[in-house]
Design a protein that fits this description.
By secondary structure, the chain is an alpha+beta fold. The chain has one domain: Cytochrome P450 (Cytochrome p450, Orthogonal Bundle), CATH 1.10.630.10. It is about 50% helix and about 10% strand. Helix 7 runs antiparallel to helix 8, helix 8 crosses helix 10 and helix 15 packs across helix 22. The N and C termini lie far apart (about 80 Å). GO terms for molecular function: heme binding; iron ion binding; monooxygenase activity; oxidoreductase activity, acting on paired donors, with incorporation or reduction of molecular oxygen. Its cofactor is heme.
């Protein structure tokens, strides 16, 4: 076989470039770090197992190397923490989800939402949620939530005299959750506008469309990937701009009217109960004039809450409905509880009636526990070098991911078969769906636990209560449907759910 000089030169060039990348990208691990899981393919490291065999791969790593351990994916070392170490990460200020989100190389979110460039934004969001929709204030929203959810149920599912297949991948449940969230965020007057509800429902889907590209170029350097993937934004393409325009169009006259009413009525002004009213009175976000810059700031703030509320809540109510629909042995028991409560409240739920949904609450908790994501989607970033209590250290800047299955499927907390669906485990052990626990990390832990978890669980319970009362719900196969796995993460099944009117 004949090779030309040019061919040989090209081979040599490729070899040299590959060697340089390998040498530059070879992970350097210090003596006291968690063990690096061995890998066979230079540069690629564990990426293929991470993408295509995550559950088995991480289980083997945990068994062989303990907790924590290091893996090498997409050109950088990640530390994986499990059941023994995770609490340290969640209860120590050295580890930051906001920094990982803001500075992430796979896609810097501040390129889309400029407000995330300011470190205090996430703290302000958490403070706003705690003060406006805390557990103590949730009763103020109960009537509004169930009213908005019923509007959504009638619109998205409607009459099912004949069995109707609802394809859940079409964001039906995003629309269902968007309506009560819009009511709480921007008030009852704006939430009646279908364009605003649609903007809230579609925002996360369009937002996610620019995050799905795997960070292949990170094998060269993470910054290369972030620079390339954000090129379209620099040239003006932005899939969420239309949603911002819609919200600003409808929000401006409402904010202007509220400011005018305050000025005219003074102490007689009755403030509406919603987040935009809270922001108007907040020292950081308050204003006396509604300018374009102010509208941009407020809308970005609101849309960030949309990302962390509508997206997660709609996903988990979808998971819960599939869990219910695929387990006919639970139907009668949970349905009977909803019928009894409905008779007590005559169709108008109060907070006390929601608290009586103990079987449904326990079922929801178990659905949240077993939703089957191997890792928690939001990583933490180590802000300065840190030594764990077991003596292992990690450097500043290290990305730390939480091995959720190691926590949610541990035998100490959940018995010899922790992967089994235990619908009444929460009820039997007095654990509500919103109660954080070292063995239940879906809402985080410590002072950084999700402040919106009480609202999310209430929305899921009210939504499921109304759906179970009104419809027989089953899967097309009559069995538990397979979830969709994307690397170590998971999405609800796409087979759809069959709804049929219950006979009254």
């Amino acid at each position: 076989m004949y090779f030309s000089f040019e061919t040989i030169t090209a081979f040599v060039g490729v070899f040299i470039v590959t060697y340089i990348i390998y040498w530059v990208k070879k992970p350097r691990i210090s003596k006291n770090e968690p063990p690096m899981v061995p890998y066979k393919i230079p540069i690629i490291g564990h990426t293929l197992n991470y993408l295509f065999n995550a559950e088995k791969f991480l289980a083997e790593c945990r068994q062989q190397h303990g907790d924590p351990f290091n893996i090498y994916v997409f050109g950088q070392v990640n530390t994986i923490v499990g059941n023994e170490i995770a609490q340290e990460v969640y209860r120590t200020d050295t580890f930051s989800k906001s920094s990982a989100m803001r500075d992430g190389d796979s896609f810097p979110l501040n390129r889309v939402l400029k407000i995330l460039e300011y470190p205090e934004t996430l703290e302000q969001v958490a403070k706003t949620i705690r003060e406006v929709i805390s557990a103590a204030k949730l009763p103020l929203y109960t009537e509004r939530m169930q009213k908005q959810l019923m509007i959504s149920i009638n619109k998205e599912i409607g009459d099912c005299s004949n069995p109707k297949l609802i394809i859940t991948a079409n964001s039906n449940f995003s629309s269902m959750i968007a309506r009560p969230v819009a009511d709480i965020l921007v008030g009852q007057e704006i939430s009646k506008n279908e364009d605003v509800v649609k903007a809230f429902a579609d925002f996360t889907k369009d937002f996610a469309s620019i995050l799905v590209i795997p960070p292949i170029l990170s094998f060269i350097h993470p910054k290369v990937h972030s620079q390339v993937i954000t090129l379209p934004l620099r040239f003006g393409w932005n899939p969420i701009r239309k949603h911002m325009i819609t919200l600003k169009e409808h929000l401006r006259p409402v904010l202007e009217k509220r400011l005018k009413d305050k000025e005219i009525l003074g102490d007689k002004y009755e403030p509406p109960l919603d987040i935009i009213e809270y922001l108007l009175n907040d020292p950081e976000y308050g204003t006396k004039v509604i300018t374009d810059d102010y509208l941009n700031k407020i809308c970005e703030f609101l849309f960030f809450i949309v990302v962390v509320s509508i997206h997660t809540t709609s996903r988990h109510i979808t998971f819960a409905l599939y869990d219910f629909a695929g387990r006919p042995e639970l139907w009668d028991d949970i349905y009977e509880e909803q019928v009894r409560i409905d008779k007590e409240c005559i169709g108008e739920l109060s907070p006390q009636h929601i608290n009586k949904m103990v079987k449904l609450d326990s079922f929801v908790r178990e659905s949240l526990r077993t939703f089957d994501s191997a890792l928690i989607p939001l990583p933490h970033k180590c802000l300065e070098s840190y030594t764990f209590k077991n003596g292992m250290s990690i450097p500043k800047g290290r990305i730390v991911q939480t091995y959720l299955m190691d926590i949610h499927y541990n035998t100490t907390a959940y018995g010899p078969e922790p992967r089994s669906f235990l619908p009444y485990h929460g009820l039997e052990n007095n654990f509500s769906a919103s109660k954080i626990d070292k063995n239940y990390l879906i809402f985080g832990s410590g002072k950084h636990a999700c402040p919106g978890r009480f609202l999310a669980v209430n929305e899921i319970k009210i939504g499921m209560h109304k759906l179970i009362l009104n419809y027989h719900i089953k899967t097309p196969s009559g069995k538990i449907e397979e979830k969709i796995h994307f690397g170590p993460f998971v999405s609800p099944p796409v087979s759809g759910l069959i709804f049929e009117n219950r006979k009254k």
